[in-house]
Design brief:
The chain has a single domain, classed as Rossmann fold (3-Layer(aba) Sandwich), CATH 3.40.50.1820. Helix content is 40%, strand content 19%. The chain contains nine helices and eight strands. Strands 1-2-4-3-5-6-7-8 form an eight-stranded mixed beta sheet, with helices on both faces. Strand 7, helix 8 and strand 8 form a beta-alpha-beta unit. The protein is globular.
Length: 247
């Protein structure tokens, strides 16, 4: 059994919370470089001022409450072993180059500067859902030094992005964990299968799942049961975030 000192140390490093009753996080609406951004702060952010948190950057339809993300994250916050993340949902519109620089550089720097984050690669995840999935995959292939885990949920991929995986394979292999899940009724299922096949051919380790139904019917459930638990398992809270080994 973990000692009280060990549990306190884990809490200070962004480790799993001590189980308690239902608690509520905070949803902030901010603007960064002219773009609207939603930031979900977990319940422990307000109650534990010494703690730093992993961060998930989610490219999806905004605002966050449309995905029922706050409700899902609040419920999970009291679950045994769940490491509460900050979740950032930016406006993902614009050109590929603009979004890559904004999400991969400007937004990460802003969030790390404003909030109590674990500002290291292994504590920073990237997710893309539906129309945001294509942008997330593009960003992941360009920024493996920024993010350590990637989750694509029912991504609406285009041919050019899937074709680019051959050139981006080396960068994708640097990710600690990649998950690719899609609905059997999703319009983008054939392209997602192509991505899965390409990643297998290129020996890019990843988890793949096809679930019953479609993204539109299952998005809030998948956020709660797959996406957030995935990052809780795979984003780590290092004892020494300044060590070169964690960057």
């Amino acid at each position: 059994m973990a000692s009280a000192a060990t549990m306190a140390a884990q809490r200070g490093r962004g480790g799993p919370p001590v189980p308690s009753g239902p608690r509520n996080g905070t949803l902030e609406h901010i603007t960064v470089n002219g773009r609207a951004v939603d930031v979900y702060l977990p319940p422990s952010y307000a109650s534990d001022a010494m703690r730093r948190f992993p961060v998930v950057y989610l490219l999806a339809e905004r605002p966050a409450d449309n995905l029922k993300l706050p409700e899902a994250a609040d419920r999970l916050s009291s679950a045994q072993g769940f490491s509460e993340p900050i979740v950032v949902l930016p406006d993902a519109s614009g050109t590929r180059a603009d979004l890559e620089k904004f999400a991969g550089e400007d937004l990460v720097a802003y969030v790390d500067g404003r909030y109590r984050t674990l500002a290291v690669r292994i504590s920073r995840g990237l997710a893309g859902a539906s129309l945001g999935g294509d942008a997330a995959l593009q960003l992941a292939m360009k920024r493996p030094a920024v993010f350590s885990s990637l989750y694509l949920l029912s991504p609406s991929l285009v041919d050019a992005t899937v074709a680019a995986v051959d050139d981006g394979a080396a960068n994708l292999r640097r990710y600690y964990m990649i998950a690719l899940t899609t609905g059997a009724a999703d319009a983008g299922l054939p392209m997602t299968r192509r991505l899965h096949d390409a990643m297998r051919r290129l020996q890019i380790a990843h988890y793949y799942e096809e679930f019953d139904g479609a993204y539109a019917d299952k998005v809030s459930d998948r956020i709660a049961t797959r996406v957030l638990p995935f990052f809780s398992r795979n984003l780590t809270a290092p004892a020494n975030p300044t060590s070169p080994a964690v960057n």
